[in-house]
Amino acid sequence: MKKIMLPIMSAVLGMSTLLSSQASAATTFKDVQANHWAKSAIESAVTKGYFKGYGNGLFKPNASVTRAEFASLISRVAKAMPLSEAGATDSFKDLEGHWSKAEVDRAVSLGFIQTKDYPNGFKPNTPITREEMAKWMSSGLMASSEEYKKAFVETKETLLPVKEAFKPGIAQAKLPYLAIAMGTNLMNGFPDGSFGMDKTTTRAESSAILLRLEGVLKKDATSFDDLNELRMVGTKKTNLELVSSLTTGNSSIADISGKRKTFRNGTGSLVFHRLIAVNVSEPKKKKSVYTSVFMTEYEQKVDKNSGVLPIFKEITIYPKRQGFNLGDYMNGVIDDTGGGATITNGLNQKYGYEVLPNLETAQFFSKYKNGVKLWVFDYMSLDDDEFAQFNMDDRSNAVIIKQK
Question: Please, which pLDDT band fits residue 384 given cuts at 50, 70 and 90?
Fold first, then answer.
């Protein structure tokens, strides 16, 4: 009996080795080095059947991805999503005879692609932009879940942690799509602080994005902490309660957002917009998506055990007095409403937001007689006995921040 089993076992082991070798060959490419940052993602995406290599053993990781290719890719990733009864069969006239027609039609049926976005044709061979990618994936998520639709509505007025959000700004119609893509970690910003809305994406980058999409499609929108933070900033105008042990109770920063505060010295006024907190002292609380936007790593280390919460306020200052300067502002705000100091770490230059000036302040404000929107920073104590009070000219909108 043993003499019979040994050859059988050898055959089984040999077949196993052969299959393993074939799988390895199927996902190994001559132009994807062992130390390539996306090697694992590329191999996984190919093994799953999302991506295909070229017949000559190349993957071309740095090649751009076209609209047709990405539509086909997301159709394959979303293969488990049910099609509507009236599935698209002729989405775009310029796809007749094109290899991608069936999969583009499926992506349209699943809600990833909106035909109204391409009134002049799909132009399948056009390299897809990162903005398009974000919109397609976010649209598909909304089509699959009511909670993602709710997230879309709640992020229409959020703040994205990328430089385009500050300068030149992102159109409100585009903002929620980017928020969902970033909040679910489908897409992230670049080291220079930008999202790169007009940039194209390589095959290597798309491999990583596809694997993330595969995972996100299986989860509820509320399971993503970063998306929850972006939703809170969009609705409450602050992330305070997610990243700290402080609360506004039954009130909300949204209650004072857009409200005016006249300076006590009569030199001008301000309008309060939002408050962003960065957690450096409470390990059990969420680390904000805005951390790198407002604080350097060195500052985070310095404040780590300080027992304080760094906060950043977005306000618009309206100078009234001729020669209005920094002193007029500092002496004009007596409570926590819009008071703050200058951000001097240089991150404003990277992200493009305006900050309170320290030098030649009269000359600075003289250029903004109709108001200037900028950011100031302050600290809030995390001690039980401390609280901050925000009062606007309309006293009915007072907000108190205190321990939960």
Answer: low
**Token pair listed for 204:** 């290597």
CB 404 within 8 A of CB 246: yes
Query: pTM for this structure?
Result: 0.90
Q: List Cα–Cα distances, 14 to 23, 27, 230, in angstroms.
A: 14, 20, 53
Contact between residue 81 and residue 217 where contact means Cβ atoms under 8 Å apart:
yes
Per-residue confidence (pLDDT) for residue 389, from 0 to 100 = 87
- For 158-186, what is each residue's pLDDT tens digit? 999 999 999 999 999 999 999 999 999 99
Q: For the chain, first and last CA: distance in Å?
A: 74
CA–CA gap between residue 174 and residue 232 (Å, rounded): 18
Query: Could you give the 3-state DSSP secondary structure of residue 139?
Result: helix
Per-residue 3-state assignment (H helix, E strand, C coil) for 69-123 = HHHHHHHHHCCCCCCCCCCCCCCCHHHCCCCCHHHHHHHHHCCCCCHHHCCCCCC
Rounded to 5 degrees, φ, ψ at 4 are -80, -40
H/E stretch holding 212 reads helix 203-216
What does the DSSP 8-state code read for residue 377? Answer: E
Sequence letter at residue 315:
I
The DSSP 8-state label assigned to residue 374 in this structure reads E
For the residues of 147-206, what is the DSSP string, one character each? Answer: HHHHHHHHTTT---SSGGGTTT---TTTHHHHHHHHHTTSS---TTS---TT-B-BHHHH
Give the mean pLDDT of 6-24. Answer: 37
Burial class (CB in 10 A: 0-12, 13-18, 19+), 273: buried
Rounded to whole angstroms, how far apart are CA atoms 153 and 136? 17
